[in-house]
């Protein structure tokens, strides 16, 4: 499962980055060489950058590079630190589930109302659908981390960055 998720993340991140780079380059050339441009490019560039960043966040969870405040946990004995890690991972997992769920509800609202982007004409539910989709990746990654913690008493990646 880890390899499949990693491949999915890699494809999404690389595609979004290459797409954003291509659109950004095209827009600069059109604007400064031909004195023209497309209205939708800024919208597309921001959307692709957000996709790449959120996918990078999922990868950061895998590598133990996500943002953590570990000053307190670092001073604890190993077993107690594992309990604190479990609590922190569990709370973060619940948070991601809630963001994904409420993000999904908002996407459904946008779909029902038929809201579209003024800049691009793209239905907004398509763009905002990025959040619940990415939260699924985050949830799967946090579940993996919790399973690793329960099996090994520590999470690879978390302890090496302390």
Report on this structure.
With 162 residues, this protein is mostly helical. The chain has one domain. Helix content is 77%, strand content 0%. It contains six helices and no strands. It has helices at 2-33, 40-63, 71-74, 78-113, 124-128, 130-152. It is elongated. The model has no long low-confidence stretch (mean pLDDT 88).
SSE topology:
Blueprint: H1 2-33, H2 40-63, H3 71-74, H4 78-113, H5 124-128, H6 130-152
Helix pairs in contact: 1-2, 2-6, 4-6
**Oligomeric state, counting identical vs distinct chains:** single chain
Order of helices and strands: HHHHHH
Calculate Rg over CA atoms.
19 Å
Structural class: mainly alpha
Which residue ranges are poorly predicted, with pLDDT under 50 across at least 5 consecutive positions?
Answer: none
How much beta, percentage-wise?
Answer: under 5%
Instruction: Name the helicity range.
Output: over 70%
Distance from N terminus to C terminus (CA atoms, Å) equals 27 Å
User: What's the helix count?
Assistant: 6
Mean pLDDT: 88
Please tell me what the overall shape is.
elongated
- In total, the number of strands is 0
Number of domains: 1
Summarize the structure.
Helix content is about 75%, strand content about 0%.
Tags for this entry?
0% strand, 77% helix, 162 residues, mainly alpha
